[in-house]
Specification:
Oligomer: single chain
Distance between the termini: 16 Å
Number of domains: 1
Largest sheet: 4 strands, antiparallel
Helix content: 25-40%
CATH topology: Alpha-Beta Plaits
CATH class: Alpha Beta
Strand content: 25-35%
């Protein structure tokens, strides 16, 4: 299982609902969370065989900013 970390602009409960629809529809994503208390709105994704670019594009297509953080 891969763990991917992103900085996002997910700010509101409505944003979170939209992201939930996107991420739960992707079968390669097994678990995810957004730290709404963090200034960078950190998205943590547990996945199997999906690239950071794919997740960035998925959120970008829905008008969210999403930038991979390397750890």
């Amino acid at each position: 299982m891969d763990i991917l970390i992103f900085e996002t602009n997910i700010n509101t409960p409505e944003d979170l609902r939209k992201v939930r629809q996107l991420l739960t529809a992707e079968s390669r994503i097994k678990n995810w969370s957004v730290d709404m208390d963090d200034i960078d709105k950190i998205l943590r994704v547990e996945s199997i065989n999906i690239s950071s670019d794919s997740i960035e594009n998925l959120l970008s297509d829905a008008d969210f900013q999403c930038r991979s953080l390397h750890y």
